[in-house]
């Protein structure tokens, strides 16, 4: 047999999947008992390279099944079906503080999965693999439509699910970094929810006038979504992460216009001046800027800015007044916001509406609780809209547990949304997640 | 408050054409009669559809993989019938055939659920989802070949290689079709879809050297293992496969697959065509006369490599059963019967395509610049079962003979 040729067969099923779908990585025809490294390589839109790898031993039939066999080392260990994605990290020599975020959601994330002989730890680019395949990971299911929204001064993007509708709707808010972040809304639309990603800190109107948006901006977004012919006007939810949580709670509790079926708040806090505008809330956070801490790596910790949780009721959104189900998702190692402490402070018990509240609290998960298999960034370079320069921001979390939290939280978020927006309690299509 | 709409999902929603999917409808009222329908607009802008009548269970769920269809274009428990039982919508042009020309884009199928059974088309669908069916896995390279006089398209899988190779040919008419080669590349083979039917008439003179050159192009490719190249041909393409393998001193395929096989080597004679009760044309009866004259046969006894013949018992285009028998007899006489494997499918016609492809019993065909309706044969359900089974067995056969190492149990 020609020693140059490799019989090793590598397959990844499905070869084209949604970002939150699992895949099965299978190696066959390897030498029984041989040591192998399975490697993932991804070049993101900014041109940076990311890699992950696991060390395996082929069984007596020459097979390695990543869903069933343990990795004995690499960027992840143990039986980790999706480790090749969530443990992706920037390759040696990369700029520090990178974070992987998809901008163009209409094109898939492309990952090259390869298998190498032996237990390798570096220099993959200079080695010839035994076999390699390409895998596509999509944010948009087929038939999902992407619609930019600029009417009434909004800077937003609406993603409509495939089909005639009408569909329940969702307003999707990210945090203090601003920009129009679309990938979560695109993914939610792939699960049957008409989702609108909203830019509320760096909106076109703010760029032009220098003025921050007010409460009406969100009520306008709600109205535009509600009035869309393919959206169920009485089934609208809101989801926010980080500062987006502050807005979500504000609107859910105090807005006379916005009537939500349910709300999801991730890595955030209810601490805010009641009746404050977006600008006033941000100013309130800044008052405590001197409480900013640095760790031994000079990474910025901002969680203390809102601590201790105030006792003054005018400084906290009154969740006791909430009329719709609320799902709170917190990482116990959140170094950016005091999300766990805020979750504990939620005074719904006394108001008698605690049956509406569900808290998902994850040990060793950090601030950036993203859709499943998103590589974990314990820290990254970050600039809020008010800062003139970037800092190295500590988000927190230990990679394996943070990734587990992302997977579990997403599944539970989808069940929560499905239950409250579609009124069904048995979502069988999520069994693969 | 509006009633929550039903939810229709197709899993996976992006897949290769030979992969299965699950169609699920949820959030229906319990015990509700519905119709699940597929709709596809072809590259020629014809609409194709399939549909099944179902009743939701007490949880309000219809699962196409698990539930029985009570009627429509298919009945019974048929997970993939929304694809293979597709036919042109009422009012379409007659004699249509569905074949993807551009393999770089997926086939888009719209799956929808409608209220009721009779007259389901009268109302808007309750829910729908689009699914993509791909002929090419990600990372496959598609290369136009136009060298040494040979024309075709080469597909190379991703990865370092080297790979086993395949020379792949369809039959007469239709021009160069790439979809089977791109699919074979998706299964790890370097595959060349060869363009050779420059003439419409199936008995045109085929140049031997052309095929030897094509075979060499694959064999000599830097990413191909030179002694692991096979040939896969259907119909007229199988004649080439037989002839090349039997007579070439240069091209030595490691194995060959002949679908709707024919070892009759037309030396320039014109075929007489008969007509059936629908005035559909069939070569079956006139061809039978030809094959009894052994001077027209490829001397398959000279073949020295494993062969797989795949034929349909209801092949109305060519006497496939008889020719397969003849091949077996010749191989036996040469003491080489052990090289031959045969698959003979009942109620299966001439056009044995990759799995889940719709069945065409008769389609338009151009002969001598005239459009006629040609009868291919087969009954839809058994023909579709044959397509699914034969593809799996073809891949298994190729795996055994073209790839090194023990053959694993490959799941399709």
From TrEMBL, chain A:
One of its GO terms (biological process) is acyl-CoA metabolic process. It comes from the Eukaryota. Residues 20-151 form the Acyl-CoA thioester hydrolase/bile acid-CoA amino acid N-acetyltransferase domain. GO terms for molecular function: fatty acyl-CoA hydrolase activity. The active site is at 242 (charge relay system), 334 (charge relay system), 367 (charge relay system). Residues 214-422 form the BAAT/Acyl-CoA thioester hydrolase C-terminal domain. Pfam families: BAAT_C (PF08840), Bile_Hydr_Trans (PF04775). Belongs to the C/M/P thioester hydrolase family. This is Acyl-CoA thioesterase 19.
Automatic annotation (TrEMBL), chain B:
InterPro entries: AB_hydrolase_fold (IPR029058), Acyl-CoA_thioEstase_long-chain (IPR016662), BAAT_C (IPR014940), Thio_Ohase/aa_AcTrfase (IPR006862), Thio_Ohase/BAAT_N (IPR042490). Residues 207-402 form the BAAT/Acyl-CoA thioester hydrolase C-terminal domain. Residues 18-147 form the Acyl-CoA thioester hydrolase/bile acid-CoA amino acid N-acetyltransferase domain. It comes from the Eukaryota. Belongs to the C/M/P thioester hydrolase family. Pfam families: BAAT_C, Bile_Hydr_Trans. GO terms for molecular function: fatty acyl-CoA hydrolase activity. SUPFAM superfamilies: alpha/beta-Hydrolases (SSF53474). This is Acyl-CoA thioesterase 17. It comes from Amphilophus citrinellus (Midas cichlid). The active site is at 235 (charge relay system), 315 (charge relay system), 350 (charge relay system). GO terms for biological process: acyl-CoA metabolic process; fatty acid metabolic process.
């Amino acid at each position: 047999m020609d020693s140059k040729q490799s019989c090793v067969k590598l397959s990844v099923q499905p070869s084209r999947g949604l970002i939150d779908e699992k895949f099965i990585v299978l190696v066959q025809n390897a030498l029984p008992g041989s040591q192998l490294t399975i490697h993932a390589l991804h070049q993101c839109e900014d041109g940076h390279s990311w890699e992950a790898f696991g060390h395996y031993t082929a069984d007596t039939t020459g097979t390695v099944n990543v869903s069933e066999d343990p990795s004995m080392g690499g960027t992840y260990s143990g039986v980790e079906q999706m480790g090749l994605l969530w443990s992706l990290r920037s390759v040696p020599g990369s700029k520090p503080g990178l974070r992987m975020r998809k901008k163009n959601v209409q094109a898939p994330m492309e990952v090259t999965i390869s298998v190498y002989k032996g237990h390798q730890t570096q220099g993959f680019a200079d080695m010839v693999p035994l076999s390699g395949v390409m895998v596509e990971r999509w944010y948009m299911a087929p038939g999902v439509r992407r619609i930019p929204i600029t009417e009434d001064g909004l800077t937003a993007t609406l993603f409509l699910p495939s089909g005639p509708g009408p569909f329940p709707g969702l307003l999707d808010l990210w945090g203090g970094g601003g920009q129009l972040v679309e990938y979560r809304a695109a993914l939610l639309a792939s699960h049957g929810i008409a989702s609108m990603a909203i830019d509320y800190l760096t909106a076109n109107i703010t760029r032009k006038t220098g003025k921050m948006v007010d409460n009406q901006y969100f009520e306008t977004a709600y109205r535009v979504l509600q009035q869309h012919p393919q959206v169920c006007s009485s089934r609208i939810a809101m989801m926010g992460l980080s500062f987006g949580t502050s807005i979500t709670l504000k609107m859910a509790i105090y807005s006379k216009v916005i009537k939500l079926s349910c709300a999801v708040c991730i890595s955030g806090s209810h601490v805010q001046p009641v009746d404050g505008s977006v600008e006033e809330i941000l100013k309130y956070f800044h008052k405590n800027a001197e409480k900013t801490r640095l760790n031994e790596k000079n990474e910025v910790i901002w969680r203390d800015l809102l601590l201790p949780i105030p006792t003054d009721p005018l400084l906290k959104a009154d969740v006791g007044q909430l009329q719709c189900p609320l799902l709170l998702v917190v990482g116990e190692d959140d170094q950016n916001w005091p999300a766990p402490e805020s979750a504990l402070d939620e005074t719904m018990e006394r108001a008698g509406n605690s049956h509406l509240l569900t808290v998902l609290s994850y040990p060793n998960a950090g601030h950036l609780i993203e859709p499943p298999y998103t590589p974990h960034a314990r820290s990254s370079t970050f600039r809020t809209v008010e800062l003139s320069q970037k800092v190295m921001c500590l988000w927190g979390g230990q990679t394996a547990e943070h990734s587990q939290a992302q997977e579990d939280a997403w599944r539970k978020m989808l069940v929560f949304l499905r239950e409250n927006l579609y009124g069904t309690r048995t979502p069988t299509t999520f069994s693969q997640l | 408050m509006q009633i929550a709409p039903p939810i229709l999902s197709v899993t996976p929603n992006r897949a290769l054409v030979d992969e299965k999917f699950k169609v699920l409808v949820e959030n229906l009222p319990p015990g509700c009669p519905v119709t699940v329908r597929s709709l596809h607009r072809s590259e020629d802008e014809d609409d194709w559809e399939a549909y099944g009548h179902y009743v939701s269970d007490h949880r309000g769920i219809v699962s196409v993989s698990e539930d029985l269809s009570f009627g429509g274009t298919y009945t019974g428990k048929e997970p993939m019938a929304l694809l293979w039982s597709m036919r042109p919508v009422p009012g379409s042009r007659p004699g249509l055939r569905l074949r993807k020309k551009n393999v770089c884009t997926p086939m888009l199928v719209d799956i929808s659920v409608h209220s009721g059974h009779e007259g389901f088309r009268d109302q808007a669908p309750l829910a729908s989802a689009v699914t993509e069916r791909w002929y090419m896995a990600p990372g496959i390279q598609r290369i136009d070949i136009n060298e040494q006089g040979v024309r075709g398209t080469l597909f190379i899988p991703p990865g370092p290689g080297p790979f086993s190779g395949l020379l792949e040919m369809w039959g007469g008419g239709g021009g160069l079709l790439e979809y089977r080669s791109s699919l074979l590349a998706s299964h790890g083979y370097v595959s060349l879809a060869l363009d050779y039917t420059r003439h419409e008439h199936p008995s045109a003179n085929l140049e031997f050297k052309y095929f030897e050159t094509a075979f060499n192009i694959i064999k000599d490719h830097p990413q191909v293992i030179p002694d692991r190249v096979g040939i896969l041909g259907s119909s007229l393409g199988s004649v080439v496969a037989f002839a090349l393998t039997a007579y070439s001193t240069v091209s030595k395929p490691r194995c060959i697959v002949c679908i709707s096989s024919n070892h009759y080597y037309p030396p320039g004679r014109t075929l007489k065509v008969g007509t059936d009760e629908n005035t559909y044309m069939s070569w079956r009866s006139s061809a039978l006369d030809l094959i009894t004259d052994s001077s027209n046969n490829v001397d398959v006894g000279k073949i020295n490599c494993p062969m797989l013949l795949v034929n349909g018992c209801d092949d109305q285009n060519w006497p496939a059963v008889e020719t397969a028998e003849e091949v077996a007899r010749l191989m036996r006489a040469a003491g080489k019967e052990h090289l031959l494997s045969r698959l003979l499918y009942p109620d299966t016609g001439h056009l044995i395509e990759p799995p889940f492809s719709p069945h065409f019993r008769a389609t338009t065909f151009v002969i001598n610049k005239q459009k006629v309706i040609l009868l291919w044969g087969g009954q839809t359900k058994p023909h579709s079962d044959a397509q699914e089974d034969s593809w799996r067995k073809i891949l298994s056969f190729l795996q055994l003979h073209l790839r090194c190492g023990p053959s694993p149990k490959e799941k399709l």
